[in-house]
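Protein in question quoted for reference:
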Amino acid sequence: MVLARRARTNVVSYADKAIADVDDDEAFSDADSEDYDDENVNVSTNTIPSSHTKAKRANKSSASSRSSKGSKRSRKQNLNTTIVASSKTSTATLVQKNEKNTLLTSLLKRTKSIDTVAADFIERHNADPNSAQCELINILFRSVGGSSSCEIDATKYKLEEIDDDEWASMITNVVADMQKATTSQVLVTAKRATTKVAAKFLDSFKNFWFSVADAALSEGAGASKKSASGAPTSARLDVELVKDLILRVTELVGVGQPDIRFASSLAAFEMSRAVLTKIVSLSNNLAIAERQFAAATGARQGSLKTQVESLKRVIAEMEELVTGPVYSVVFMHRYRDSNEFIRTLCMENLSTSIVLRPSLFLQDKYLKYFGWMLSDSSAEVRRAALVALNLPFDTLKQRIENGSDDGSIDLADMSNVCMKFLDRISGCSVDVNVDVQPHAMTLLLSLLREGFLDEVENEKFWDQANFCAVNPIATEEMRATSLQFVIEQIEAFDDDEEELAAQGISSGDEERAIVAKVDALASWIASSITGPDTVVEKARVRLTDLVVESLRIIPEQAAIATNWSAILRAINEDAVATTKDNATADTKVDEVKQLVLMRFLLAAVKCEVGDIGDAEFLTGTISKKGKITKKGSGVAHENLSVEILKALPDLFVKFSGDSRMLTQLASLPRYLIHSVFSLPQRKKEFLSLLKQTGELYLKSTDEAVLMQCAMSLTHMTEGGHTRVTDAQNQVQKIIDSLNKKISDLVVLKLSTTKKKKKGEVDQDSEFALGLALTQLRILAKRGDVASMIGDDEIEDFIATLTECAESRIKGAKGSNQTLKESSVVVKEIMNINTVFLGWKVASLHDGEDEKMKEEEKEDTLALDGDDSDGEETDAGNVVVNIRDRLVDLCYEAFDLKPEGADWEQDKDSEFMQFLAIIQKAACGTVSDIRSICAKGLKNAANKTLRAVALVDDSRLLNCLAKYVKSLDKSERNFAQDGLLAISRILIANWDVVNRREAGIVLSNISGSSVEATKMISAFIKVAKAKDGVKLLEAHMASLRQSFEEWQAAQPDELGEKFTDDEMDEFTEKEEQHEVMYNGLRTQASKLSGSLGVSKLSNPKMMPAMVGFVKEGIRYAFSCPKKAGGEDDEEQFGDRLSFLGPLKTYLNWIKQNQMQKNEIIADYEVKEMVFKNHIFYNEDVHADVLKAFGDDFIGVLVNRKRAASQMTGEAASSVMPPPAPASSKGSSALDSVVEEGAEYEKGMFDDLGGGKDKEQGEVGGSAGKRRRTTRGSGAQ
C-alpha cells in the first residue's frame, strides 16, 4: 500500500503550468530571458506544500544570519556521529557505535553495496511507509550537518499529519545545528567538497537516491516481476511509489538554507535519472515487442498487443513523473537559484536527461535554458551550460565510434538554440574566466563540424574564434581546441580522396599531403599576424611556436610537427601563400609566410628535443660525451639531427640575404645531438655547416644573427665528438680575422678635418671597427677566447683598445668627428674589457677551487710546504691592470661634459647622443667591475684574489650617483639604464653595502616610472630578508639625501625691490619647493609602508626602529657646521622640517608602550637642548618648532602638548654631556660634527646592526641657508 500524499497536485498540471509558455512562437523572446534575471530564490506556494513554505519563511532569517556573519563552531559535540576534523579522518571514525541512523551508517561505512542498502530500504518501506520516509528526510538532514537531535521520530510523527508550525520548527532546528557544525561534519553542501570524505560520501549519496528510485520501480509493493504468462516484463512497475518519494523530497527544495536546497534537489534529480534510465530500458523492450507484434499471428499477436500497450502506458506515466514533479517543481525554480552550485546542478541534470531521453527533452523549450545561462554571473554555471550544449554532440560521436547509435539523437534539433545564442557562445570563447573558454571553443568546433556555421558570414566572429589559436595569454588547452577549429576550415586538412585529387595529391603520396597541410597552416598563420600596417621585419612570427605546441597536443595532427622531411620540403618549395579558402594571398603575407615556415621548423625541433633529449641539453650543460639518458630517445634525436644537418647547408645558401631567416637558421645547429657530428657519412655536411656558420658570422651585421651563430659554434666545439678540433679551428680563424681587423683599424688617427686622408678615421672605418668589436664581444661571452688571442698579447691588446676608446672620448668635442660610430666603438671596448676581466677573475677562482680540492685530498693545509698566501701571480697582475684601465676609462666617460650647452635643449645633438651612450655603458661597466672585483674579495685567503678586490670605490660611487641623478626617473628606461646597475651590486654585496648608495636607490621609490617602482619594491624585499637593520640605515640615508636636496633647492628671498616677473618666478619656485617637500613625505610614507603591513615583516627590525627614530630626531634638532667645525647660526633650526617625513615611521613605535615612552623622552630632551642653545630665538624658531614638533609628537601623545619642562635630577639623568663652547656661547647638542658617530659607523651598532664601512662622498652639502625655514607641508 502506498502512503497517501498530502496536498498532492496533479502531475499533468505541473507540466502544463511550467512548459506551456514555450509552445508559442516567442520561445526565445527577451521577456523569457528576463524571467531568469528577476526570479528570486523563493518558490511559490502553489508548487510545494504550504507547511513547507512557512517553514522556509521561519528559517529565512537564520539562514541569512549564517551567510552574513558566519557560523561559530561549537566545541561541544552536537551530533551522535563523531566527525574528526582532521586530514587523517576516515569514514570509520565518522560514525559512533551507538549511531541509530542506519542509512547514514551504511553510506559512510559502505559495509554493503548501495544497491543492497536501497533494496533493504524499499523492503522496509513496503512494511512501514511512514517510518521509511522519515528515514529519507533524516538522511537529508544529517548529510547537510544536522545532528541526531533534529531527526524526525517516526513513532511520534506521521508525516501526513505534521502541520505547518511543526514543519517550521523542525527546519529551524536543522539550520541551528548546521550553524554549529564544523566543516568536516557537513557531508553534502552547496559548494565544492572540501574533504576526501565529503567527496566520497557525495558519490554514495547520489548513487543511493538513484538506487532507491530504481528499486522502488521494480521492488515496490505495486510492482510485479513477471507477467501473467510467466515471461519477464517490466510493464508493471511501482511508478506511484517513486512519484511519492520524489514529491516527499521536493518539500525541501525551497528552504532558505542553500545546503538543504542542494541536497534535496540532488536527490530529486538522481531519482528522475533512475526513472529515465528505466524508460530507456523499457523503450528497448517496446521496440522488440513491436517488431514481434508485427510478425506474430493469432493468439500470440493479441498477447503481444497487450504487452505493447502496457509498456506504452508505463512509459507515458514515467515521463509525466519526470516532466512534472521534477522539472516543473525543482528545475523550473532552482535553475534561477541564488546559489551558483544549485544552478550548475540544474544544468548538469537537464543535459543528462537530454541524452537519456532525446525524444522528450531535446527540444527548444528545454535547450533554451542553456542559452540563457550562458550569461550567468557565475563562471561555473556558464561552464556547465556550455558543456550541456555540447553533450549531445559528444554523445552522438561516441555512439557512432562504438557502433551503438540508435538514431535517437537528432542534432538538427540543436540548430535553433545554438544559432540563436551563437554570439553569446562566441563571447564565452574570450570569457574573463579561463576555465570557461575551452568549453566554448569545443562547442564552436562541434557546431562547425556539423555544418551549423556554414552560413555564418560575420568576419568578426571568425576572426575572434581563430585568433585564440595564436593568443599568447590563452591556456594551452584553449589554443589547441581553437587550432582544431582553424584546421576544420582549411581545405588541405580534408582527407577526402576527391579533395586531395583536386589539389594534385595522389592517395598514396602521404608526405605530399603533409607538405600541403604545413604550407596551408603557415599561410593561415601569416595571414593572421599580417595586417595592412604590418612591417614584414616586425611581424610576430614567434606566435608560430604556439601553433606547433598545439599541434603536438592534438593526437590526429601530432605527426605533422615531427615530419622533418615534409617541413623541409615545404620550406624549399616556397609555394605562394594562400588563404584558408585556397585563394592567393597578397605579397606581404607571402613574405611573412616564409618566416613562419622557418619558425615552424625551429619550434618543432625545439619542442622535439625538449621531449626526447636530456633535461640538460637545452640548458647548455650537456655532458662532454653528449649522452642521451632517456630510454629510446637517442635514436629519435639522431634521426632529427641527421635530417636537419643534411638540409642546413642548402638552406644557408637559399636564404643568404635574409637576416631574419638566417637568425632562425643559425640557431638550429645547437639542437643537434653531438653524436651525429661524428658519423662518417655526415662529415661533408658538418664541415660545410661549420664553414658557412663561420663565414656568416664574419659577414653579418645583425646582432641577432651573430648571437645565434656564436651559440651554434660554441655547441659544435663541445660534446666530445670526433670533429671538435675542426670546430675549434674554425673559431680560431674567426678570432684571428677579428684580431687582425681590429689591430689595423685602432691605429688610425683621429682628424678634425672634414676631408679625411688615408690613415685617418672616417665613417666607414669607424663603423667597421665597431662591428668587429661587436663580433669579438659576442663570441667572447660564449667562451674564454683570450688564449686564442695569446696569453702574452692579451694585456697589450686590451691596452690598445683602451687607448683607442680614450682618444674617442677626448676628441668628442672636436668638429667633424664620427660620433655615432665612435659611440659604438667606446661602448664595445668597455664591454670587451669587462668580458676579459670576468674570464680572468673566473680562472683565478677556478684555480683556487682546484687547489683547495687538492689540499682536501692530501688532507693538508698546503702542498709541498708552500704558503697558500704566496706572492701575487702574473695572472693577478694582468687582472689588476685590466681592472684599473677599465676604471680609468669609465672616469673619462663620466667626466665628459658639454660646455656652454643646455642639456635639455641639446639632448638630441650628436654630441649629447654620444655622451648618453658612453655614460650608459660606463654605468653598466662600473656595476660589472664592482661585481667581478667585489670588495669582499679583500678577505680572500689567496693573495692574488685579495689584490683583485676593488676596495676604494668611493670615486666610482660618486660618478655613478651623479649619473643616476641626472637621468629622468619618470622615463620607462630609467630602471634599466640607472637603477639596475646600482641595485644588483648592492644586493650581491649587502653585507658590506654602502648605505648612502642604497639610499640613492630608495629615493626613487616615488615619482619614478612603474618599472622603477617595481624594481625598488623587489630590492627592498630582498634587502629586508638579508639584513633589515642595514635597510633601515639605508632608509635614513635616503631621507637625509632627499631632505638636503630639498633644502638646497629652496629659493632665495626677494630683495626690497623686485619686478613682477621676479615675483612670478619666485612664486613658481616656491610652489616647486612645496611639491618637493610633499614628495619627500610621500617617499617616507612609501618606505615606511614597505617594512610590513600592520606589523614589521622582520621582527628583528623592531629594536632597531627605536634607534632609527632617535637618529632622525637627533638630525632634526642638530645644527649644520661651518668649515671650521662650529655651529652655523645662519642655518640653525633649518632641519626641524625633517620631523615631517620622519613622522610616518612612528606608527611602528606607538605599538609598544615602552618604546613609545623612550621616544617621547628622547624627543623632549632634544627639544629642551634646542631651546637652550645660544642661537635659539623665540621669535624666529618657536613657530617652526610648534608647527613641526607638535605635529610629530602628537602621533605618540594624544593631547595638546605644552612646552616640555624637565628640571632637577630627571633632566640631568637624560642630559647628554656638554659640547665644546662656540664663539658665541654654549651648544649642548649631542652632535658636534655634521655626521654623527652613529651615522658614520652604523647608526644602530649598539643593537648589533652594523659594522664600520667605507663611506663614499655621495650627496652634496646644503650650503648656506637662510636663517628661517619655511614650514612646507607642516600644516
About this structure: The mean pLDDT is 78. DSSP finds 52 helices and two strands in the chain. The CA atoms of residues 965 and 1000 lie 8 Å apart. The beta strands are 1092-1093, 1095-1096.
